[in-house]
Amino acid sequence: MAYAYLFKYIIIGDTGVGKSCLLLQFTDKRFQPVHDLTIGVEFGARMITIDGKQIKLQIWDTAGQESFRSITRSYYRGAAGALLVYDITRRDTFNHLTTWLEDARQHSNSNMVIMLIGNKSDLESRREVKKEEGEAFAREHGLIFMETSAKTASNVEEAFINTAKEIYEKIQEGVFDINNEANGIKIGPQHATTNSTLSGSQGGQQAGGGCC
Amino acid sequence: MDKGYISDDHIIPCRGPHVSSLMLSVGFNGTQESLENSDDDEEYLGERAIDEVYHLWCLAGGDLEKELTNKEIIQSKPPVCTLPNFLLEDGESFGQGRDRSFLLDDTTVTLSLCQLKNRLKDVAGEAYYPLLEDEQSSLSQSNSSNELSCTVTLPLIIRERDTEYQLIRIILFDRLLKAYPYKKNLVWKEARVDIPPLIRGLAWAALLGVEGDIQAKYDSIDKDTPIPTDRQIEVDIPRCHQYDELLSSPQGHRKFRRVLKAWVVSHPDLVYWQGLDSLCAPFLWLNFNNEALAYACMSAFIPKYLYNFFLKDNSHVIQEYLTVFSQMIAFHDPELSNHLNEIGFIPDLYAIPWFLTMFTHVFPLHKIFHLWDTLLLGNSSFPFCIGVAILQQLRDRLLANGFNECILLFSDLPVHLAVLLLLFQLFCLRLWNPDLFTGRATCPRPII
């Protein structure tokens, strides 16, 4: 399908916080209470519209276990956006955010937009991390923040789309060099300003997220 | 990744009867029926173990649930009548009595062996006592019926449902396994033909070379003291092959936890990586009532096929493995290899779950069983062949597509592959494959 831009996202965070469920809710609009664990990386894709433009999101869903960190690091390269997820019912997943953030900052490009997500907001009775704490952490580290529930779909669309909006704005401001694919953005065949022909679209993917 | 959460007909009936019927004692009786050679049959069948007879009885068309329904022991209620009257937020329910089928019922139900006997009436008495010592006696000769030798050429799925064929195979394997390790070579030889599902757990153990007092070893491992890995195991088990009734049962979870902990505790130089749970699943399923054997099989499997994969820092091992795999693709299919490299679809993005779990993370159990029946006959380079075989199956679609389509294709497609086709490919590739090419530097020694 034709698109104006392709953004590469990466979802990171501790094991069992609901990364794959967020992705499934976003791409398939469904919730699977028992989701297979992720080994290495899995993928999802969806088209969204921002400012009248079709934008394709290519989402890399990574393994959360500590051991996989060395493998996961190679997936950061070329990501335009990252969803950093913790579980509001498990404080340890919140405490680990700093190391995740260090990892993300160190292995991605400096303009990557990071969205902090407190997932499982439907489990209010088991909450261990206050919403204010999430907000404070996001403020301190310059992240966007949102609480979501992959189960009820609350804020899931918003989380993915707001991140895309932020990236889109950065493109408009000229912060992102869209011709450098290491930034995780690719111009699609639909984009009016490029002179590439339609047949160039497949070729354009060659360097896309692929070499990461 | 979707693993085909459908109850596939290929799934072999588990060794035990259905959970609801475990509460009952079930007996067999064939005396009411007078068949021509019923006396002989009964004598021979009577020599076999009850789980064998039950397995064959099922293959011959027996349906325990139907029998119990006919006896009105299982009574189906309309689903609307099973709803509780009151439900709390945490899932506790009120106003609904416990289902009768979960309670102990010591009624004895006698099942008729008539159908099974009728099915086996042409099997000669000698078939129950095959000669093993005579090197010349092959399967076809040891049995008077020529039909059986024809059966060998039928597809695996059909063979696994053929009552006579399974009877002969089970008897043969049973005798060979009782003489293990003395008859090890013959076990290998017969396993190349096929492995009867009923015997699979023990046959795999023999192929993996499990020996010694495994129960004592397993018992001596401390599986109770909390360890740091506990939490991870706790999170992973409820996500591992949960479409299966055994593995999703509370008892299944408890066994899972014990076997995994036993492995972690007894391998201090290695660590628990996510994926180890999937790797444990086929062994646990096959040896559900013998945790020690499940543990012993897993412990024997890992050094053979996943040497050093579970080191704390395994990045070198994985990188090396994936590099060899890339070379294999390039060797067998340069065109596909070039295409995949061009679009950046490298093994790092899709093959880690394949190899780290030996495909147990990407296939449902009934497919894993057939895949591993073959894998266990080979050395540590067999997994590469399976990987290349999968790529070969998807070749046209991979060549026609770019990066985005390929990654999505791999998110759910490999699980729909017909395993038989895959195995066929596996053998083809194997014939082609020069052994030295796949030799892994980290492997301590050639296995076969």
TrEMBL record, chain A:
Show the GO cellular component annotation of the record. acrosomal vesicle; endoplasmic reticulum membrane; Golgi membrane
Gene3D superfamilies with a match to the protein in the record: P-loop containing nucleotide triphosphate hydrolases
| Signal peptide start and end residues | none
Compositional bias (Gly residues): 201-212
Under the heading InterPro entries, the entry gives: P-loop_NTPase, Rab_GTPases_membrane_traffic, Small_GTP-bd, Small_GTPase
Give compartment(s).
Cytoplasmic vesicle, Secretory vesicle, Acrosome; Endoplasmic reticulum membrane; Golgi apparatus membrane
Q: Which is an annotated GO molecular function term of this record?
A: GTP binding
Membrane topology annotation: Lipid-anchor
> Which keywords does the record carry?
ER-Golgi transport, Golgi apparatus, GTP-binding, Lipoprotein, Membrane, Nucleotide-binding, Prenylation, Protein transport, Transport
Q: Which SMART domains did the record assign? A: RAB, RAN, RAS, RHO
Chain segments carrying region Disordered: 193-212
What are the BP-aspect GO terms?
protein transport; vesicle-mediated transport
- What is the superkingdom listed in this entry's lineage? Eukaryota
Q: Say which family it is in.
A: Belongs to the small GTPase superfamily. Rab family.
What is the name listed in the Swiss-Prot or TrEMBL entry for this protein?
Answer: Ras-related protein Rab-2A
TrEMBL record, chain B:
Alphabetically list the UniProt keywords. GTPase activation
| Protein name as it appears in the record | Rab-GAP TBC domain-containing protein
Tell me the SMART domains matching this sequence: TBC
Q: Does the keyword Transmembrane helix apply?
A: no
Q: Which gene encodes it?
A: TBCK
The uppermost taxa in this organism's lineage are:
Eukaryota, Metazoa, Chordata, Craniata, Vertebrata
Q: Which PANTHER family match?
A: TBC DOMAIN-CONTAINING PROTEIN KINASE-LIKE PROTEIN, TBC1 DOMAIN FAMILY MEMBER GTPASE-ACTIVATING PROTEIN
Q: Name one Pfam family in it.
A: RabGAP-TBC
Q: Which domain of life is it from?
A: Eukaryota
One annotated GO molecular function: GTPase activator activity
Q: Which SUPFAM superfamilies match?
A: Ypt/Rab-GAP domain of gyp1p
Q: Does the keyword Transmembrane helix belong to this entry?
A: no
